[in-house]
Amino acid sequence: MSDPFENPKRIKAFDKLWLGFSNNKFIIKDLEEPAQHHTMLFKDDGIVDVHKTKEGSKKEYEPVAKYDLAKTALNILAHPKEMEDAFMQFLQTMKEVNFEEPEYEHLAIANMKTKEELAGIVKKEKKGLVIPVESLQEFQLGKSVIPWKEAKGKIKDNALVFDREKPAGYIFKKGFKYFYLPVAVLMDTPIMQFFNKMMNPEKISDYNN
Question: Disulfide check for 201: which of 61, 66, 67, 88 has CB 3.0–4.6 Å away?
Answer without folding.
Answer: 67
